[in-house]
Amino acid sequence: MADKLINLYEEILKIRLFEKNLLKLFSRGLLKGTTHTCIGQETNAVGVIKGLFKNDIVLSNHRCHGHFLAHTKNYKGLLHEILGYSTGVSRGIGGSQHLSYKNIFYSNGILGGNAPMAVGLAFAKKLKKENNLICLFLGDGAFGEGVIYEVLNLISIYKLPILVIVEDNEIAQTTPTKTTLAGEIKKKCESFNLQTSFLKYPTADELKKKVIKLVSKVRKKIPQVLVIKSVRLGPHSKGDDTRNAKELKKLNDLDPLIKLRKKIKNSNLLEKTEKKAEQYILRLFDYSIKNKFSNKKKISKQDSINIIKKTNLKSIKAKKFGEYINKYFCDLLKENKKVLFFGEDIKDPYGGAFKITKNLTNKFPKNIYSTPISEASIVGMTSGLAVEGYKPIVEVMFGDFLSLAFDQILNNLSKFHFMYENFKTPIVIRTPMGGRRGYGPTHSQSIEKHFFGIKGLNIYSLNPFFPIDIIYNKALNDQTPSLVIENKVLYNFDLEKINSNKYKNFVFKNHYESNNFYTTLSLSEFEKDECTIICYGGMVDIVLNAALEFFLETEIAVKVVLISKLCPFENDNLINVITEKGPIITVEESGKFFGFGSEVGSYLTEKGILKSRDFLRLSSKDEIIPSSYHQEKEVLISQKDIVEALKNYFK
């Protein structure tokens, strides 16, 4: 018993000394930025993780050092990471908060932000029938975040192998939790039918004993929550503690490390252990500070993915474009059992709001999952599924609802490949976008421009002319996530009108070299076009109708360039397909400011194309989209608007 206690004591003490020495580096000017030490809470990390298996996966938050060190024992890797060395566990990119290690540890800086990832990892483990579990560390402050309640619900309804550890230190940065959080955390968790336990300032041996019992249930797919009343003895970050001396003395009297020390009666052994721990940490810091490691490793880049196969549009028999997407997904599931669909009401008999997943459940019941109305968590969980080898496709019912998942896309999914070593996220988030269906202000917007420019996020826009298997092949084999935009009106596009690469007298060609995914359409077989219109998605039919009307009235032929990959905007070949003369016009259903047209214009300016060419941006009005049919028509860009713009230019 004495040996077990002294081992626990040594491990906790090493973590505390590590944290105290980190704070000294700031005072010496050797560290910049910030760090969030776990002084006072090291016991939680060691006690909990002693009850886990080595291959169990631990997810943590901004106060992650103790959890990382207890689970990985990689002191040098963590210190080098915080010092910004390329030899750090995240190559110096992650710093103090954003850590990963050998697929068994992940942390992120957004409070509660990686909780959905824990759901995805646990979902994958359950599907694979593997015995390792997910341990998710949360702080009490995370219970002010809505995504936590989404996650608790998913853990409960899916019976996931997750142990949730809540470290309740009763204070946020400087604000007491009782002034910002109503009710008890334990009761909140129990309200989701989750078995919840509570320990008050436990020592590491007490905690280990409790966790071993809880873990035995978790491995039987009975998720558990453990709330640990804790003490945070250090500042929130490196020096922002507003608590007075009396408060801190009271907390220090509750220090679990001191309580554990009192259980060890051998004073000589204690002295020897403390000296050993101190020497280990001092040597580590001295060595790392004196031997600065150059940043030779480069930040991971997105790899170019080759197109594996392309199918002809006619190979899938469908009358409407929406039906074609549905049949494509059916073929995709036949070929790849790792593809999983998630979304609200996507199972049969409903099959999604626009019936894109209809009949998939009947054929592939193990691959289709209807979820709660929880956009943030169902989008966020895909990262955990992806790193476990699955190919998740999430349907967000309306494009407008993407805003609810924005944090997960911006601060999690798009960054993981670059932050974490060997982390790939071949994820697809697909959603219907646009108006002209009378759905009103919150169900008719084109908000994709708000996602343009997010590093690591690929954005595609489907249309009936460009083969969607090329897009999905790329997306499902990529290193980073993809957002696939589908236009509601195009679901009813009549595919039978496309015949032998012709549509309404337009000849069209598809281009998919490297990352250039676009289609060119011409009324003059690309010989006498006097103007270029660049558009994407749902604007295609409106633009083609306008170009045809204008041609019939004026005999001026317009070339249409239909973009299928919107972001990153890598269309270097665009210069080769625009007309040699006449204006270059962009058309988009969104408002023009800071949008697609702005980016195209900037790109063409930088390439020197607009020195001798005119450039016009056409778009919908920058107004709320009404539900009223006639008012909606006044707001959204129309065929008439495009024809008038062409006539005004060429008059």
Q: What would you say this structure looks like, in words?
A:
The protein folds into 3 domains: 2-290, Rossmann fold (3-Layer(aba) Sandwich), CATH 3.40.50.970; 334-492, Thiamin diphosphate (ThDP)-binding fold, Pyr/PP domains (Rossmann fold); 503-650, Rossmann fold (3-Layer(aba) Sandwich), CATH 3.40.50. The chain contains 22 helices and 21 strands. Mean pLDDT is 93; it is low at 302-313. The radius of gyration is 29 Å and the shape is elongated. The strands form 3 sheets. The protein has a 7-stranded mixed beta sheet, with helices on both faces. Strands 9-8-10-11-13-12-19 form a 7-stranded mixed beta sheet. Strands 14-15-16-18-17-20-21 form a 7-stranded mixed beta sheet, with helices on both faces. It is of the alpha/beta class and 651 residues long.
